[in-house]
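hi! just following up on the protien thing from before. the input was this:
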Amino acid sequence: MSVQDSGVPGRGVEALFDGVTINRLRLPNRVAMAPMGRCFATDGVIAAGYSDYYSRRVEGGAGLILGEASAIGPGASSNPTSPWFFGEAALAAWREPVAAVHEAGGAFMPQLWHAGLARAPGTEPFADLPSIGPSDWYIPNTDAQLRTQLGYNYGRPMTDGQISDVIEAFGKAAVAARELGCDGVEIHGAHGYLIDQFLWSVMNRRTDRYNGRLRDRARFGAEVVAEVRRRTGPDFPILFRFSQWKLQDYDTRIVETPDDVAQLVEPLVDAGVDLFHVSVRRFWEPAFAGSARTLAGWTKVLSGKPTMTVGSVTLDQAFGVGTQDYAEHFLNEKNRQLDLARPVSLDRLLGLFEQGEFDMVAVGRAMISNPDWATIVRTGRFADLRPYTRDALARLD
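and the predicted 3d structure came back as:
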């Protein structure tokens, strides 16, 4: 897919439902379910409900399902109820959801993940394994009141051997995905997890080839991509997700200028990335002062690769994290109710899409509450969109 072919001006929402090609994979439309952690796994084995959960979203119009963050090896998960993408039992459990998505007419890609220092030491079921990261500096996630917490030293920087082991584990997980019939993989390089810890200068305090300019800090992620490409071959789609914001700090940035974007994406393109999944809090916001272009738009222009946008799609308020419902955490606008007659962000989405800023859109929380989000939006039945609340996370339906 070229960087010029996203959308047909003037066609409105219907253009989102044109087919699109990533590498050699032809998708029926440009709508993906975002990879949201549901954490319904026991010892890494996903619950039986995942097949119906994913297939309902495809039946509801999504063309691509991105599975939730799945650990690529022992000690890679920050949550004992997160899925694994290693081990005989865990991998076998993925066969049915992949088949169900295909039967419904969609494509499936797992999100391969290592939490790095976001995993608290002693986390089960591998409590005896150390938590690892680029250096010995860790900043915890924001607390329930969305306050950034102070960092501290613990552990030791990853050795060259540990880095090689993690890279190999990503490669093995990608091979397993291909053998299971998955249509590609997404590599999780966002939100303050291991690959992102290398990218983020605050967390990366190394003194070797993995630190320096952003191009150097991207080396580890690029080596992961290169190993996945080497093991899976030239025709297997590889997506790479990155973000400005982190779970530790919503306002932090890893790229401050277009040159930074180029330094980040160029080594990843050389390593084999087919599409960049650009995670921002509000997809419509300009990336840098002096230009209206979004981060997805800059990434597309500077990488020459297609991009996927995500972040508050049809949710007209920025998201928050806390113990209350989403509706009580409007960080950008003060407690106004959602206008379900036509979400403002949908008009923004279509306008940016027609401008060629991105090629696909991932929908997260709105699709948890609305398995048929794509069909509702395509048919203009916006009043049928159900608002997202945290209660929806308690169920896999």
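The chain has one domain: 12-394.
The radius of gyration is 20 Å.
cheers
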